[in-house]
Write a structure and sequence with these properties.
Elements lengths: L4 E9 L7 H15 L4 E6 L5 H13 L3 H22 L2 H28 L4 H25 L4 E3 L19 H11 L1 H5 L3 E5 L2 E3 L5 E3 L4 H13 L1 E8 L20 E3 H9 L11 H6 L3 E5 L8 E4 L11 E14 L9 H11 L4 E6 L3 E6 L5 H8 L4 E14 L9 H8 L5 E6 L5 E7 L3 H12 L10 H15 L1
Parallel strand pairs: 1-2, 1-7, 2-4, 3-4, 7-9, 8-10
Antiparallel strand pairs: 5-6, 9-10, 11-13, 11-14, 12-13, 14-16, 15-16
Amino acid sequence: MSTPRNHIVVMKFGGTSVEDAKAIDRTAAIVRTRTEKGLSPVVVVSAMAKVTDQLLAAAAAAGKGDKMGALAISARLRNRHIDTAAELLDNERFTALQPVIGNEFDSLDDLLRGIAAVGELTPRTTDNVVSYGERLSSRMVAAAFDQRGLNGIHHDARESIITDSAFGKAKPLSDKIEEKLVANVLPLIDAGKTPVMGGFIGSNEQGITTTLGRGGSDYTGALIGGGLHAGAIEIWTDVNGIMTTDPRITSDALRVKTISFEEAAELAYFGAKVLHPATILPAVQKNIPVWVLNSRNAANEGTKIIAAAPPCKSPFKCIAAKRKLTIIDIVSSGMLMSHGYMKAVFDIFDRHKVVVDMVSTSEVSISLTVDSTIGLDAVIEDLSAIADVKLDPNKALICLVGEDIRGHAGISGQVFTAVSHVNVRMISQGASEINMSFMIEEADVEEAVRSLHKKFFANPDPSVFDVEARAAAQTEPATAKA
C-alpha cells in the first residue's frame, strides 16, 4: 500500500468558480490560502459556467447539418474566452495565451464543419466537442495562477485520466491513472508547481478523448486524489456544503458539518446535486477525507465527509428528492412460487442497460422505478412477453438518509405521520439501514420535504448541524424591522 502524501490537497472548482475573470481571481486567492499553509495543491477545473451546454448545442446543430449555427455558437465562446483572458492576464501572458486559445477554437470549428458535412453526431465526436470547455478553462486558470505567484502549470488531464472507450460516460482505469499521475503530475508537485487540470475529460488507451459524463469534474478530482494518495480532496462549489435539504424548497435548510462516506454516497445517488454520485468512491477506497466548500464564501467551514461520522441525536442527516421518475408495475400469476422469475425480469433490464432505482415486491407483482426513458420501450416489449406491464410516470422519490436510523424505534411511523396528507406510492428501506425512501407524485415533492424537515430538524443537534446560521437568519428580519 502506498504511503499517504498528506501535503497534497486536490482542489476541484466548478463552473461558477471559473465563470469569469473575477471568479478565477477569487479561486486563485483560495488556492493561495493552501500554499500559505505549506500544502501542495493540485487544481481541477470545470469548463466556464454554461460552456458545456453551449458546446453540446453546437454539436447538436452541426449534427443536424446547421453548420452556420454551430459556428456562430463557437464564435461567441471564442470571444468570451479571449475577453476573459484579456481581463485576467497581463500583456505578456495574454499575448502568449491568445494564439493557444485561437488554435483550440480553430480546431473546434474544423470539427464542427466535419460533423455538419457528414450529418451525423456520434458519442465519440460529442466527447471531443465538449472536451474543449475544460481544455480552455484549465489553460486560462494555469496562466492566471502563474501570474499571481502560484507557479501554475497546465497539465492536460487526457494524459493522465485513462478510461475505457464508453464515450459519453467512460469508466476510469484506476491502476493506469495512478501510474500516469505518479509519472506526470507528482514531479510537477515535487518541483513546487501548482498543476491545473481540466475535469470531466480523459482519454482511452489509444489516446482518443473521452468524458466521464455530466458532473464528472468532481469524479476527476477524486480520481486524482486517490491516485496521488492525497491528504484531502476539496470540492469547491457555490453552496456552503451539504445541506439538510434543498434550500430552494425550505429556507430552514441547515449545513451539515460532518457526514459519513456512506451517507454522502446515498445522498449523491438519490438526487443531492452537490456531489456527483461516483465522486467519493476513490476517496472511500483510500480513506481520504472530502470537503465540500463554497468558493463564494471561502470562510465557511463547509461539510467534511469521512469514513465514520460522529453520532447524531437526530435519526436523519438529510432529505433528498429525485424527480422525473417512472414506476413500472410488473404483474404475473406466473411469479407465484416460481423459481427464476425475478432473475428473468432483471436480466431484461440488464440486457438493455436500464438502471433501476428502487424495487418493491409482493407475491405476484414487482414495482420498480427508473429515472430515464432511454431504452425503456425495448424493456417494456420484452417484459410484456412474461407479464402484464403498466407505466406510471411523473413520480418522485423522497430519500431520508442517516446512520442513526438503526437506533430509533418507531421511526417509520414518525415519517409517514409527517406526510400523512401526501399519497405514498412505494416504500423501501435500504439494506444498509441508512436510508428510508418512498415514492410520491412529483407535484407533492415540496410539500412533503417541508413537512419532513419541520418534523425532524426543528431542534437540530449543534454538534452535527450549523444551527448558528439558522439563528442568524431568524434574527435578521426582526433587527431590520426594529
